[in-house]
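Long-time lurker. I teach an intro course on protein structure, and each term I like to show students one example going from raw sequence to a predicted 3D structure in C-alpha cell notation. This year I'd like something fresh instead of my usual example. Would anyone be willing to generate the C-alpha cells for the chain below so I can use it in lecture? Attribution to the forum is fine with me.
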Amino acid sequence: MKDFSVFSMDFSGFFREFSARKDAEISKMTTFGVGGRTALAVYPESVARLAAVVAFAAKSDVPVLVLGGGSNVLVSDAGFSGIVIRAGGVLRGILPCRGGFWAAAGTYLGEIFRFSRDNDLGGFEFLRSIPGAVGASVVGNAGCFGGEIAKRAKIVQALDLKKLAEFFGKPRFCGTDGFFGETDFSAVENTPSPRELRGNEAENFLPENELATEKNPTAPILPESDIREAVRASEIFFDGEALAPQYRRTALSGGRFLVTRVFFEGVGSFDAGFADYVARKRAETQPRGCKTAGSVFLRDGDFSPAKAIDDLGLKGLRVGGAYVHPRHAGFIANRSDASASDVLELIGILRRRVYEAFGRELRTEINYVGDGAFRLNQRGIFGSPVSE
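-- Reply from a regular --
Happy to contribute to a lecture. Here you go:
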C-alpha cells in the first residue's frame, strides 16, 4: 500500500476533531464484506466536516473513496491507498421543510422509508428494505418495483470536485469513486448546468448552511479560511430536471460530484398496501441473511440477466467463497471467506456463458473500486466478453 506522507501526521493536527482510523478494514464498511484495507478512514458527522476532508484531500493530492451504505461496491483485495470517507450511517439526518424534507447524504434509505410512512408522504414505498444511503443512491438512481429515487429528488446539494481541484490549482480531480479525473479538464464529459436557486426560493428550501456557519476543524496544512473559500468555489445545486435520471444513472454519475444532501418531495399519501407488497416480494425472491452487493447485472430492456443465468442452470455456481445465490440468480453472495478476486472471476464466467448462449453482453451494476481496480463495464476484462 502506498505510504502517503500525510498519513504519518499526528492526529492532534488536522483530524483531531474527526472520528478517524488508520489502516482500517474496508470490508467491514460494505455489504459484500470483501476487500483490503485503507490507509485512513474518516467518519464525518456533518456536511462541514465532510467538505473539510474533501478539501484537504484535494489540496494534498490524496485520492478519496466515498462510501455511503457500501451496498453497491466491490473493493479490491489490495485495498485503497487513500482516504475512505465513510458517510453512510454517520452523516445522517432528516429535516422536514415545506412539503418535503432534506436528507443528509449518509442517511440510510430505510430511514427515508420510515419517515415517509410516519409522515404520510407517498412515493417512497419502494425503498422498504433497500440497503444504501441517500447520496450514492441518488447519484446512481437506485430503484425497484417501478420506483426510482432520483425522480423524487427536487434539489441536490453537492461539491463539484473539478471546481475544487481548480481552486487549489490542481491539474486533475480525484472522483468520489477513487478514480482520477482527466488531466485536461476540457476532456471531462460535459454535464448539465445546475439551476441556480434565487431569492426567496433558496430561503424556502435551504436549511441553515452548515458549510458557512459551522466552525471547521483547523490545521496548519489547510487553514479554515481556505476550506471555506474552497467550499464556496465548488458548492453546486441541481434541480430534479437537471439530474436527468436514467436507468441507474443521473447527470451526477461518474465520480465528479459529491452529494452532501438532498431535498425530496413526496407524491400523494403513503400507500401502506404497496409497501407491504414490496416487503413480501423481496422476502420471497431475494437473498436474506447473507453478504451481497445487491443485483450484480443491469437489465437490458426486456432481457433479464438473472433469468438468463437461471435458464443456464448456473444458480449455486461457486468460485472460492463467492457463489450465485440459489434464490435469485442476479445476486452473487459471499460465503464469508470470499475475496474480490473470487467475485471477479465468477462475474467473468457468468458474462461469458450468457454471451455464448444468448449473444448478450452483460453490464454490471456494482462498482469495482480500490487499488488496481477499474470501473466495471468500462475497462479491462469487463469491456468485451468476446475478446477475454
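Some talking points for your students: The chain has a mean pLDDT of 80. The chain is about 25% helix and 20% strand.
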